[in-house]
Structures are given as structure tokens and as C-alpha cells.
Amino acid sequence: MHYDIIGDIHGCYEELLQLLHKLGYYWEQERFVHPNNRKPVFVGDLTDRGPQSLSVIRLVYQLVINQQNAYYVPGNHCNKLYRYFLGNNVQINHGLETTVAEYENLTQKEQTDIKEMMITLYEQAPLYLQLSDVQAVVAHAGIQEKDIGKQNKKVKTFVLYGDITGETWADGRPIRRDWAQNYDGDQWIVYGHTPVRNPRFVRRTVNIDTGCVFGNALTAFRLPEETTVSVPSQQPFVKEKFS
């Protein structure tokens, strides 16, 4: 199988459509298809901060759940939105407020539909995805080699948030260790979570969160080709978001 692993979308629906078309996908009888039977893989953080989070949910739900011709793993923003939809007491900040504002403008039926879509997407998703045919693992914020195949609270925290130290920067962002520098595995680890100006290759890892919602680009990593494809963002550029 051939895959197009797509980085953090964060509600940038128009850019997602542009990227899918650039990758060769097109609509045929209400299905998104590829002439070479490629599969999109979404690395999480579908929503928040960007202008059309609910449209992204609808499209990804259609591809992953209805058509069953794409894969999705959740990110930390997906986890928070899922908990919000369950009625948990979560803080509506760090981008969630944009998704909630969209949600509150819907009719009651539309709210019920989008809530059910997101809950289904999240509950049916693996924490991380092993693509053994191309020797790759897709995990939102990454995964350590020793944890591949494991499922526990510590692994979940790492996959969703990265290798956090427990400390924070002045602006409240968590301080994270650069785990990729110590990765020594043979499989590709394809991840996002931390915005970078260009796809960041370290050892056999690649960070494909090129900060679309912060005005840079939306990027896909293609396997087995090991190439990247990007489209420019339509959002304002926020320089300080890129380390």
C-alpha cells in the first residue's frame, strides 16, 4: 500500500482540500479516490485555532468511517475536544474556543451529528498506527522505539503531548525534550504536534507539522517514496510559533 500522511490540520479545511488534490485525490460519485489507490493518514489535531474545524471533522469522518479508505490517529487537541463532547470539565482555551464557537452556531441536530462524528472518530482510532508494509509508525507527537506495541498511560501521554518535562515556557507551553535525537529504530516515526518551518528529518523520524494554522504550510509525507508534498497556508503568518 502507498500512503500520504498528513500533518496537523487545525481547522484549515481549504488547505486540506488543496493538499488532497495536489496529492492526486479527486471526488468520484461522492467518494474521495486516488487513481493509484493511495490512502491518506491523518496525524491528529484536526481541529482548533483554524477557521473550519467542523468541516475537517466531517471530511475526515467520511474518509475514515464511512468510506474506510483512510486512517486517523488522535492528537492532544482531538483528545480535549472529545472530552468536551463527553461533557467533561475542560478549559476552553488554547484554540478549543474557536471550535466551540463554530459548534455553538449550529442547529441542535447539527450539533448532535458533529458530536457523534468526533466521538466515533476518536473512539475507533488507534492511539498510534503501525504501517508494517512500509516500516512506519504514525504517532501524533512521536513515540519511543521501546514503546512501539505498548498501550499504557505513560505511552499515551508521550504520543499525545511528546516527551514533556513537566516544566513550562513563559507563555505556558510545555517544555519538551527532543526525543527524535535519541531514536535509533529502523521504522519511520511520522509525527507532528510541534510546528516547524520545514519538514524536520532526524534519524528515521520526520515532523510534518509545518504550522498551517500559523501561516506556513500543510504537509504530507509519502510512503514508500519518502518524499514530502506541501501547499501554502491561507492563514496569517505567526513567526513566534516556530522554534
From TrEMBL:
CDD domains: MPP_Prp_like. One of its GO terms (molecular function) is bis(5'-nucleosyl)-tetraphosphatase (asymmetrical) activity. It holds the Pfam family Metallophos. Residues 3-196 form the Calcineurin-like phosphoesterase domain. NCBIfam families: PRK13625.1. Coiled coil: none annotated. Keywords: Hydrolase. This is Bis(5'-nucleosyl)-tetraphosphatase PrpE. The keyword Transmembrane helix does not apply. GO terms for cellular component: cytoplasm. Its EC number is 3.6.1.17. The lineage of its organism: Bacteria, Bacillati, Bacillota, Bacilli, Bacillales. Transmembrane segments: none annotated. It is an enzyme of class 3 (hydrolase).
